[in-house]
Structure to design on (249 residues):
């Protein structure tokens, strides 16, 4: 399977390249990235119009600002697309949804199998523990650009679904006399060092606390998930998909 890798010179791009070297099924035929002098066995372009290599699927681990160009290339060349980038605005999400009317797109803020299972778990816990307060804490490395993480937003969406979409997000707390609204879910971001990714959903009740945590120990879990998504999306009809469609959680 020939992959066009968007974000080839970034940290996730380099991880995917390393993983693909050990897999005969996947070949990165071309990449889009910055001109950083990073040597690869495939050409890296900064302009989509220069791509001439054979491509079966587009895999995006880049920056949300590239989404219009990515969608344009994928639609014009009729290529299935996997979007694993976060930080999108509501307008950009609508743009992705519109593009899925023309090509198959798998769109997920997190490619980890464990995280996608966790989404189901916390939705069920939220429904089963209606009187418990919910907080979400996410931790990432000091170079992460968006906050809160796309995964934290996904976790909020899941716990909110478990409460019939009656909850509201609160990003951090500061000040005094901050009485907690029963409907609010505090979402807190920590940035430091080389933390790959850690997400905790805390359910606090009367005299008891239940915490569910996922810890990513390396970026390889996201690379493997992205490649699994590529394997899936090339066989799908036009439409918008996510990781739950693959694993049937």
């Amino acid at each position: 399977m020939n992959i066009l890798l968007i974000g080839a010179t970034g940290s996730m791009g380099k991880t995917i390249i390393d993983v693909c070297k050990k897999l005969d099924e996947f070949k990165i035929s071309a990449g889009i990235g910055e001109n950083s002098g990073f040597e690869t066995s495939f050409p890296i372009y900064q302009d989509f119009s220069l791509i001439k290599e054979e491509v079966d699927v587009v895999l995006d681990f880049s920056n949300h600002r590239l989404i219009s160009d990515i969608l344009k290339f994928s639609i014009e060349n009729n290529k299935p697309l996997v979007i694993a980038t976060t930080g999108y605005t509501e307008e950009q999400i609508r743009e992705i949804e519109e593009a899925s009317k023309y090509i198959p797109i798998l769109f997920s803020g997190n490619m980890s199998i464990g995280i996608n299972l966790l989404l189901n778990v916390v939705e069920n816990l939220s429904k089963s523990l209606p009187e418990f307060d919910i907080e979400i804490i996410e931790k990432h490395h000091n170079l992460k650009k968006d906050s809160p993480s796309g995964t934290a937003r996904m976790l909020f969406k899941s716990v909110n679904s478990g409460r019939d979409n009656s909850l509201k997000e609160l990003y951090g707390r500061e000040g005094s006399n901050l009485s907690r609204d029963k409907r609010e879910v505090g979402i807190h971001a920590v940035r430091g060092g080389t933390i790959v990714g850690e997400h905790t959903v805390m359910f606090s009740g009367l005299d008891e606390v239940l915490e569910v945590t996922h810890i990513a120990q390396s970026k390889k879990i996201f690379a493997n998930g992205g490649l699994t998504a590529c394997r899936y999306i090339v066989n799908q009809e036009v439409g918008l998909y996510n990781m739950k469609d693959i694993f049937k959680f």
Remarks:
- The longest helix spans residues 113-128.
- The chain has a mean pLDDT of 94.
- The radius of gyration is 19 Å.
- The chain has two domains: 2-107+219-247, 113-216.
